[in-house]
Amino acid sequence: MGFGQDEGVEIDAGFAPAHDGTQWAYSGSLTFANAGSVLAAAAAMRLPDEGEVDLDNLVEIDSSAVAVLVALRRRAAEEGKPLRFVHVPPALVALAEVYDVEAILRP
Description:
Elements: E1 4-6, E2 9-11, E3 14-18, E4 23-30, H1 35-43, E5 52-61, H2 63-79, E6 84-86, H3 90-98
Parallel strand pairs: 4-5, 5-6
Antiparallel strand pairs: 1-2, 3-4
């Protein structure tokens, strides 16, 4: 299940449309190692119609995950679309609090 490309190497993490494009689901890790590729792949996708991004299968994170979610929220705001994250792992909430951006995780 490849979600994007990183210097010619397929990565097994990223956002994928779910429920006929009404939502996105994330699967895999989101760390410095793949954040750029994940964000580039997401930029090529239409935002989910219902604005929901399910993070239930997010397995490993670092501060780069927070940066990716901030970038997605900024994109949604620029496009005038709603975007909310569901099934947010507690570790991601904790990192967002450290960076004082936990508001991005609220609906």
